Automatic annotation (TrEMBL):
Coiled coil: none annotated. This is isopentenyl-diphosphate Delta-isomerase. It comes from Halovivax asiaticus JCM 14624. Residues 1-37 are annotated as: Disordered. CDD domains: NUDIX_IPP_Isomerase. The lineage of its organism: Archaea, Methanobacteriati, Methanobacteriota, Stenosarchaea group, Halobacteria.
Length: 186
């Protein structure tokens, strides 16, 4: 460990792993999360969770400005990476509670609805190369308790209008994985 006061602190992601996968989402083993998102990137497992209310509105969450990739962009509720041995559903439940205070008592089930691979660069900061699972759930109780270190803003949006007219919402700067998931949702 450096004692130089001007030495940069390591990014928190440097101490975490993600799961490298092949194009069929077959696990290849753990890789460093920061390495997976820099340089040429490493294909890894991820998920995005789309949370709805009973009226067909989707909860969009604005990523905190401190996020290294896509900070202040709007996401289809939460997105993250499962850890080794964790299912997509369990990872989704965990992130919903950590980021938004949504507990399993507020919804019935988490449904895996799609999976796709994509690769996108973000400015000069890094990239995503992920096999992304899409999970959906509907809240019975819409009470939220967002963690400001994860979520900067929240907005309920009529999902059909957003799907049919994404150009109307262009000023929101949507995360690429959410846009892909929404375009693929029939």
């Amino acid at each position: 460990m450096s004692t130089d006061p001007d030495a940069a602190e390591p990014h928190p992601n440097a101490g975490q792993d993600v799961i490298a996968v092949d194009e069929n989402d077959t696990e290849q083993g753990p890789v460093n999360r920061l390495e997976a998102h820099t340089g040429d990137g490493i294909r890894h497992r991820a998920f995005t969770a789309l949370v709805f209310d009973g009226d067909g509105n989707i909860l969009l969450a604005q990523r905190a400005p401190e996020k290294r990739l896509w900070g202040t962009y709007w996401d289809g509720t939460v997105a993250s990476h499962p850890v080794e041995g964790q299912s997509q559903e369990a990872a989704t439940r965990e992130r919903l509670e950590e980021e938004l205070g949504i507990t399993p008592e507020q919804y019935d089930d988490v449904e895996l609805t799609d999976r796709f691979e994509y690769r996108r660069h973000f400015e000069n900061a890094g990239l995503e190369h992920e096999v992304c699972a899409v999970l959906q759930l509907t809240l019975d109780d819409c009470e939220l308790d967002p963690d400001e270190s994860e979520v900067a803003g929240l907005m309920w949006v009529p999902y059909d209008r957003l799907q049919d007219h994404p150009e109307w919402y262009r000023q929101l700067r949507l995360c690429p994985w959410f846009e892909i998931a929404m375009q693929r949702d029939d």
